[in-house]
Amino acid sequence: MNIGKGLRPIIVIVFFLLLIPVTFYIKVPYTINTNGVLLPVMEWRLEKSFDGTIVNTLKDNRTNTIPKFSATEFQRGDHVEFRKFAEINQSGKITAGDTIGKIHSHLEYFKLLELKGNLEEQMRVKQITLTGETPERIAAAYQHMILAQTEYETEKKLWERAQSLYEENVIALQEYELAQNSYNIKKQQINIATANYEVLTSGAKREEVERVEAVIGAINEQIENVNQRLEAFYITSPISGTVSSGIRNTTSNETLMRVIQNQQMVLLMPVEVYNLDYVTDGMAVIIDNIGNSLLGNIIHIDDNIEHINQRQAVFVTAIFENPDGQLRPNLKVNARIDYGKISLAQYIIRMSKNIYHN
Questions:
Q1: What is the pTM assigned to this prediction?
Q2: How far apart are CA 274 and CA 43, in angstroms?
Q3: Sign of CA dihedral 93, 97, 101, 103
C-alpha cells in the first residue's frame, strides 16, 4: 500500500510529461473577440460652420484619411443658403460628378449686379465722350461722384480699423482681406465716378476714351472673377453613392448634405495591445450578431496606441462586402478575428495571457 501511494505522484508527473508533446500536435481554433462600429468605405459631407463657412470634406474610412478638403468663406453679414436640387432628394442615388445643389450668396450676387451696373455706366461714359452730353447729365455725374466719395471715405475708415485689429491679432486674416477687398472696390468706384465727371466736363479726348476703355476692361475682369466664384457655388459630388439622412456629426457644424458609398462597409474595432502579435493584414473577421454571420478581412492596422476604458488598444479596420445593404452605417457589432488553428500548447499560453491581462 505504501508503494502504491509513492507511485501516484510519479505516475502523475509521467502523465503530464507525456501530455506536453501531445499539446503541440493537437490543433484548436483561436479567435480574438472584440466589438466595433460599421462605417461606409467613403463618405462625403457638405457642412456649414457657425460663421457661415461652407466646409467640403471627403473621408476614406478604410485608412481614416481625408483625401479632399476645402472651405469657402463668405463676408460677415452675408446671407448664405444651400439649395438642393429636387431630383436628388427624390432619387437618393448619386453618381460622381452629379451637381447636387447650389450655394446662394446674396452679397456675391449684389456685387455682380453692382459691377454690371458700373459696366453699363462706363459704356455710356464712352459714348458720351465720343458724342458729347447735356448739362443735366453732367450734374447727375457730379452727384454720383460725391456719393462715391462719401462711400469711399467710410469704407476706408472700416479698412483702416480692420488693419489695426488684424495687427493686434483681434480678427483673422480672412476678415481683414474681406475689408481690404471692399475698400478696393469703393476705391475703384470713386475712380470711375471721377473719370465719368471729368469726361463730361472736359469734352471728348482720345486719352479720356482710352482711360474709359481701361476702366471697362478692369470691370469686365472683376465680373469674370465674380462669375468664376459663383460657378464654384454649384456643388458636385466627388463620389457615387447614396444620400444619407443620418447626421452622424462629430463637430458643431450643420450638415447640408452627406453621401456615402455603402456597397462595401468597414468595421473599425479596437484590439488590445497584447493581442497585436496575433493580428495581420488579410486575416479573416467574422460578424455574428446581425442575423447571420458575415465574413470580411483586415485591411489596415493603425500605428497609434489608444486608451479605451483605461486599457491600451490599437484600432484595426476590416472590410465587408455589402451588396444588399444589410450592413448599416454606425451599427455597433460584436466581431471575431479568426487566427485559424493553433496548437493546444499555444492556445494554453495565449489564454493564460488573456487571463493575466483581464
A1: 0.57
A2: 32
A3: positive
Question: In sequence order, what are the residues at sequence separation of 6 or more whose Cβ sits closer than 8 angstroms to the Cβ of residue 1?
Answer: none
How far apart, in whole angstroms, are the C-alpha atoms of residue 111 and residue 51?
20
32: its cell numbers: 480574438
Which one is predicted more confidently, 204 or 103? 103
CA–centroid distance for 153 within its chain: 40
Q: State the sign of the Cα–Cα–Cα–Cα dihedral 158, 162, 165, 171.
A: positive
Taking the alpha carbons at both ends of the chain, their separation in whole angstroms is: 45
CB 181 within 8 A of CB 189: no
Confidence band of 216 (pLDDT split at 50, 70, 90):
confident
User: What length does the chain have?
Assistant: 358
Mean pLDDT in residue range 308-334? 88
Contact assessment for residue 348 and residue 28, using Cβ atoms and an 8 Å cutoff: no
More confident of the two residues 24 and 339: 339
Residue type, 222: Q
What is the per-residue DSSP string for 158-209? HHHHHHHHHHTTSS-HHHHHHHHHHHHHHHHHHHHHHHHHHHHHH---HHHH
Backbone angles phi, psi at 197, to 5 degrees: -65, -45
> Is beta strand 284-287 parallel, antiparallel or unpaired with respect to 306-308?
unpaired
Beta carbons of 232 and 72 less than 8 angstroms apart: yes
> How would you class 175 by CB atoms within 10 Å of its CB: exposed for 0-12, middle for 13-18, buried for 19 or more?
middle
Long-range contacts of 226-230 (CB under 8 A, 24+ apart): 226/108, 226/111, 226/112, 226/115, 227/112, 229/108, 230/105, 230/108, 230/109, 230/112
Closest among 308, 311, 285 to 38, alpha carbons compared = 285
For residue 231, give every residue at least 6 positions away whose Cβ sits within 8 Å of its Cβ, in sequence order, or none: none
3-class SS of residue 149: helix
Q: Which residue has the cell 456685387?
A: 111
Looking at the DSSP assignment, which residues form a beta bridge with residue 65? Answer: 60
